[in-house]
Amino acid sequence: MFGYYFKLGLRNLRRNPALTALMVLTLAIGVAASVSTLTILHVMSGNPMPHKSERMISVVFNNGPLEGYSPGDKPNDDQVSYTDAMNLQASGQGARRTAMMGLGGTIQPDRKDIAPFVVTGGGPYRDFFAMFEIPFLHGQAWSEADDKAGADVMVLTRALSEKLYGNDNPVGRRLRYNGFDFLITGVIDNWDPIPRFHRIVGMGAFDEEDEFFLPMATAVRHEWNNSGSTNCTSSAGAGYQAFIRSECTWIQFWFELHSAADRAALQDWIDGYAAEQRKLGRMPRNAPNHLYNLTEWLEHLKVVGNDNKLSAWLAFGFLLLCLVNTVGLLLAKFSVRAPEVGVRRALGASRKEIFHQFLVETAVIGLAGGVLGLLLALGALGLISLQSKELALVARMDWAMLCVTFAMAVAAAILAGLLPTWRACQVTPALQLKSQ
């Protein structure tokens, strides 16, 4: 019977085209508004590495001075100092570990048809590539010896490699960056995590991706400044060496644990490390040391702010308003069909069968509203993505949201049709037949 009711529903869409079009449009607009907002919220709040997010741990110390500090105050920054980063890097804790700074400079291509241009990238340790499961198109990461020596080696992204070398494999060639020749050891394939969890503080959760990577030790050897957030609670002193010995925080640090159960042991080690540093005259605040797994890190940095959540609630409020209007339109549509219901009831149709028929018809309206709502949502997301590069990253629909769109439209139509359908089932056959 479902197939029959479905065909009947399609046929009934043409019985009152103006009213049907108004219902479909009302439903589609509500669905499009809510789905567009929900899609952006879904992308922004996504987990970039769900299979290992519990094992990815970021560390934050409270290494500010005692002056102006009250117990319970938050750390002055969500990064660590160079001293702490190097100690953590040498600690041997976890399965892998990496410090990371931001870099920015100028590339001078060999090709005469390309003028020098500015690029941005990251300065991690080689564990970074395995920790974050970054795929390679050509070559590989630099060696551990390169990390220790601060060698002039570099890994390019696929986009930068194609810009400079086309489809050729550039591994083994040298590229001039900031006045120095760097050996290209690898080219990573497409890697575009959203949010940019690995270096949010330095580059933003939805900023453009890094274009290259080179060893952090190399950047320090060349005395290059961090490109990103740098927080100094007191004077760092004159010169680069004074800066890296200071308590300025400018480095993001990540551990990868063997298992989530190792977190307690890492916390004990971190607390013990901080206690030793206090004996050396550092970390005078004696504040708690924080570990965040990946999902906690995103929540801590408020990647999805309250204004984004409020926008989603407002969008669903608008959908509810559209549903109320749809209920009124369905009541009007079904009320004029009371004689038809009376005849069917007189011929032996039960209230249950009438209910199923009209509910399937509302589902057909919901399906039509879903198709139109999807088109409107895609158009809205396209317009949103034109506003900025950051919005272009999050204003995109995946298969999950595509299914949600249709499910939401059909469910909304069925929900809106419950009252009109119930009213239609209450028709008294005798009264309708007497009036004919």
TrEMBL record:
Domain of life: Bacteria
Main subcellular location of this protein, as a coarse class: membrane
Membrane as UniProt keyword: yes
Presence of the UniProt keyword Transferase in the record: no
Domain ABC3 transporter permease C-terminal: 314-428
Organism annotation: Pseudoduganella albidiflava
Membrane topology classification: Multi-pass membrane protein
Transmembrane segments: 310-334, 354-387, 399-419
Protein name per UniProt: FtsX-like permease family protein
Domain MacB-like periplasmic core: 20-271
Entry's localization field: Cell membrane
UniProt keyword annotations, A-Z: Cell membrane, Membrane, Transmembrane, Transmembrane helix
